[in-house]
C-alpha cells in the first residue's frame, strides 16, 4: 500500500467534517464482508493504512471531493 502520512489526517478530518463517528465508519465497512475487522483507529493514528479499495470506500463515505488533492497529489 502507499505510504502517505497525510492519509491519517485526511481520513480523520473528512470523517469529522461529515459528522461521522468512528463507529459509523466501522459499521459502513462492516457491511462489506471483506472489510470486517479493519481498524479505523489505526488508520487515523497513522499506525496502519487502508488498502486502495478501502481508501476509495472511505472517500465515498465521506463524500470527499478531489481525493488526490486531499492527499497531496497533483496532476
Q: What features would you highlight for this structure?
A:
75 residues; mainly alpha; 0% strand; globular
Describe what this molecule looks like in 3D:
- It contains five helices and no strands.
- With 75 residues, the protein is mainly alpha-helical.
- The longest helix has 12 residues, at 6-17.
Helices and strands, with pairings:
Blueprint lengths: L5 H12 L4 H9 L9 H6 L6 H10 L5 H4 L5
Order of helices and strands: HHHHH
Q: List the uncertain runs.
A: none
- Secondary-structure-based class equals mainly alpha
Largest sheet: none
Radius of gyration over alpha carbons?
11 Å
Termini separation: 20 Å
Estimate the mean pLDDT confidence.
Answer: 75
Helix share of residues? Answer: 40-55%
How would the global form be characterised? Answer: globular
Work out the helix count: 5
Count of β-strands: 0
Portion in beta strands:
under 5%
Would you kindly provide a brief summary of this structure?
The chain is an all-alpha fold and 75 residues long.
Amino acid at each position: 500500500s502507499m505510504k502517505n502520512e497525510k492519509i491519517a489526517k485526511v481520513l480523520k478530518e473528512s470523517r469529522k467534517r461529515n459528522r461521522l463517528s468512528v463507529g459509523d465508519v466501522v459499521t459502513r465497512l462492516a457491511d462489506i464482508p471483506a472489510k470486517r475487522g479493519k481498524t479505523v483507529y489505526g488508520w487515523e493514528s497513522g499506525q496502519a493504512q487502508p488498502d486502495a479499495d478501502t481508501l476509495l470506500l472511505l472517500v465515498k463515505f465521506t463524500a470527499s471531493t478531489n481525493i488526490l488533492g486531499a492527499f497531496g497529489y497533483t496532476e
